[in-house]
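User: Hey, quick favor. My workstation is busy. Could you predict this chain's structure for me?
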Amino acid sequence: MRRRLLEIFGELKPRPTLVVGDVILDRYLEGHVERISPEAPAPVFESRGEREVAGGAANVAANVAALGARAALVGVTGRDADAARLRALLAGQGISPRGLVADPSRVTTRKTRLMAQRQQMLRVDRETRESAPRAAGERMLAAIRLELPRVGGVIVSDYGKGALPEWLLKELFALCRKAGKETIVDPKGADYARYRGAAMITPNRAEAAAAARMEIVREEDYEKAAARLFEITGARRLVITRGPEGMSVFDGPGKPGLRLAAEALEVFDVSGAGDTVIAALGVALFSGVELEAAARIANVAAAIEVGHLGAWAVSRQEIMDRLDGGAPRKIMDRAQVAAFAKAARARGEAVVFTNGCFDLLHAGHIKLLRQARAFGDRLIVGLNTDRSVRRLKGPGRPALSEDDRAEILAALDCVDAVSLFDEPTPLKLIRAALPDVLVKGGDYTVDAVVGREVVEKRGGRVELVRLVEGRSTTGLINRILDAHGHKPRVKGKR
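Assistant: No problem, here it is.
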């Protein structure tokens, strides 16, 4: 089945997709909590950085674009600084913000999450929940009419923030039926009668239970809930996402459901998983893929998304890599590193770079890499080739080949990309990656760090990490030689 899915997805020619709904600016404040405030029994959050990403319907559009389809987005914002930042984020991801209607009576929805120790500690929301004024809704419909002839289908992303009043949904579904465009809805609330006219609904288990007015506990409860939701909405298809239990897929009223087990290897954060599912379903279905295969592809995409902190736009290549039998390939050439870093920056992520020989990986290396990763969201490691190591450390090194060293580094969770460089310094690789943070060991001074000017010119910074005393590859090799009766002969600091 996975080989068949890989073939289907590899041959897919994604059609343009229209996303309509509540757009959100997601802000992540990242830091540490190590003490309690003397003023009150509350943890002290020490902020180390922040990033902003497109959320809600805008995150659905970002996922659509990452899957290789042109994404058009229609929604409503305030006329404020958050709206301007959201538009800039979308433009950076190749998504036109022209379908966003600015309404001065509203504020742009913003969710601020405080993240510490890879956990969400608190969320602060700023929003307007009232329905958008009729005039703003009419402008949204005008934008929808403009985009409909150009797209393969429509995704409706309802976050309950007022962009989708019932009258607008009724008009939208009528326009789509007339144009022969399929509509898929990610619903909100318990009243699913407002979605009558949509072709497909994708609630999670709690949402499905609330809308069907029943508890979902046993497997047969999913069948009963699906029957009620088909009756309420008149939809032709239904997918109920089940979190760690995968999803249930129903290809029409009266037909038995298909249970798909979850694909996730490790779950860090489920925020944004629903956006990823509906985006993958839409891109696949609108491009002619059958429902079962589309749902299986969406299930794989969701597994990738929950393995990241915060909303993550899952790329087509990530899905291809997972279907092909494993985790995404982290070992990259210089051009791939440049593309990887550019995509990360477009998502609002901070890119960190460090480099070294990393011969016979030890605790000092691990500490350096983990601390480097903590300075941002993506860590790129520049790795000296064998020839480069020999120039630096003599003919007896490296102990491990460049292929072995690269594979070991790529196996670490804290490392996102590894790229070999053959030059005396990693300057060319740094110029390709254009990192936000450049990290070296504490035996360097900031002025001596190669690439400092490149990074600081872009507003980035250099961080020096204190080395672990008594940990070095040179010392490790010499101890091995000594233990086997050989005179230590390897020189050097590391």
